[in-house]
Predict the 3D structure of the following.
Amino acid sequence: MANTLLGLLLPSLLLCCGKSTAALKSILTVSPSWLSPGASVNLSCEVKPSSPAGWRFYWYKAVPDLSKNSYRYDPLPGSISETVKNSSIIHGQKQTAGFTCRAGRRNPEDFTEYSEPKFIWSADSHPAASLTVSPNKEKLFTIDEIKLNCEGSSADWRVRRFKESYYEPDLSHCSNWGTMTGSSCTFMSPHYHRAVYWCESGSGEFSNAVNITIYPPDSVLTVSPSWLNPGISVTLSCEVKPSSAGWRFYWYKAVPDLSKNSYRYELLPGSINGTVENYFIIHGQKQTAGYLCRAGRGNPEVFAFYSYPKFIWSADPHPAATLSVSPDREQHFTSESVTLTCGGNSTEWRAKEFTESGHLFYIDNCSPLGTMTGSSCTFNRTWTHKLVVWCESRSGEFSNAVNITFQYEDLLLVSPVHPVTEGASVTLSCRRRGENKLSDVIFYHNDKLIQNDSRGELKISAVSQSDEGFYKCEHSGEVSPQSWMGVKAGSKQSSSSFPVIWVVGSVCGVVLVVLLLLLCCFIKFKDHFCLRLVRSESRGRGSRTNHTVSQSEANEYSSPLHGTSNLYDSVRPSEDPVNDANEHQHITYSLLEFKNSGNKRGHREPQEGAVYADVRAGAAGSSSPAAADAAVYSEVKSGH
């Protein structure tokens, strides 16, 4: 029990008696960090953790020791004996220098650890040690190879760098982040940083110091067009500044992040591996959207800064996010209140504006413009201001965008802030500050006079695409600023019936083709059976006699087409090769007239399926009445 109690009390006793001061640290601060002519340097030393009074403080100069890659500590003049004050003032310091301190107390005296060296920097070079930087330009980039050269009275050098860090300061030499060759240090930095560089010689000299900030190159995005039109593609172009070759380009979509009052960046499809071309085309974009780009090169890849987000705006609302404006007009007098209302599938919104001067404002609860109540934001302006306004939701949606102008002038045009649908009516008017109704107003469309009479309004009963454009009004010699009136296509009712029309048209087309095919077959069939040329060779000499067609001969003919009254058909008996040379003289034509036999007296009843034909024989080219009178009726039986 006694041993345990002694173990608990011993650390306290040692601290009280001054035997554990080595565990305490001295912290030095130097002011200012950079020397200016005639200014003195203040050193302050503090013991941490804090402990009872009674400390005495000692001040040292840090002298470079290249052999040990560290510093030796030489007491400052006047500080060999201890001082009670925890501060010291140095006068007349002109060159870069390093300092340290420590504290001690009791007798025999116990000391704290030396403090980390702190530096005061001078931009003035001197013959004993000087530093030059190449390339010698105001702004250096991550793509630059930087060379630091040490010159002076020594043959041995090292380059030091001091960089502030979020966790603790970083004091290092060239071999940690570059290549030291003789008296030169060469390095490239892949990331942004800011640091102080200087040379230290083997003879203990400090050179002048330089403050170097290394930036990634800038990515600059341009978007064309700024406002969307139906069917128009969007072109993104990315430029690296300063300009250089070998870059690949990455393209991002800016998605609203209300929790951080900023955006998160999502790579666009087709951009995961970057593109060699510095442009990217987006097809089918219909809603307001934000985009960014950045460039990278090398292996490992060094990236430029992200570009600032750029936007393409759409005037068309959509169910997920919609912006409405009250009063519903583009132009407003200064100090008039305007209410923006965001609607859609989110319960949290922010209103954002892009000014004519190119500044983008993220408005949390519509501040500093006004106050946001739910999804509404009311604000005003006391100066002339032109801006594009839209809503962004917590779910990452953009609403339609609108132009809003605050006018200091006393005359403004009253025109709709949203596009007008084709076929709808619209009324434009002119308004003077403090007056609601005006007469004798002149109206212009795209700077062309379109109405000049006693009326105070311009009424368009059925808006068409030709009505789109810039409008302004004039009253009593004063002209208002102009505003753009957009026109959007009306709902196409025929679009839903398009499939029906297409189907009906297709069916009609098929039916027409079938009918044409049937007609062709009909004509072909008719020609084949009814317009055949029959050669008839006379077997005996003398005049041609009437010929009675027997049933056996009729079997050589095809039945005529139904409904034909007079058809010429060739009668072709068996051929005689001997008379082939004169066959054109022995052609006989037969005129077949179909008759309805009925039940006439003197005629026998027709047999079922029989067809009667009046066969009139005549030589080719003759048409004598005798031939016509010599008709013989022949019964032609169709075969079954």
User: Anything to note?
Assistant: Helices lie at 2-17, 494-530, 551-554, 625-629. The chain has a mean pLDDT of 79. The longest strand covers residues 56-65.
